[in-house]
Amino acid sequence: MRKIVIAALSTALALTVWAPAATVGVGQQAPKPIRITRVMYDPPGPDTGTNAHLNREWVAIKNFGQQTRQLRGWTLRDTSGQVFHFPRFRLRPGTTVQVHTGDGQATRHDLYWGMDTYVWNNTGDRATLRNRDGRLIDRCRWGDGDGFKLC
Fold it and tell me: What pLDDT is recorded for position 32?
């Protein structure tokens, strides 16, 4: 908390008001409201290529902001140029959507890329999220690991 003192020039009275301190230090950027939070790039079990197994590969994107965000026209891509184009989709504050690799029925928490092969490389890759104007929103990079990355 930071103390703000407002002094009246004509009197010796002062009014003290408490206000929350800034949560971002000088020279630091404010946290992004929309962020990639997790990637399941190598789901457990053999890579069978079935739709069920493809859908166990996903990227989670969370809205940390205070406003609902329309993601239509946003993109999610890997380093080899495979691109998921977000359909009309509203991401509410505090909620997460998982973008699954395979086919499925979209819900408020799940979207489906519709691929018939795996997207995310097990030996290292990068998920890049951009808004409809092409501006970088977030990235998550990993190397050869255990198949799951917290971003």
Answer: 85
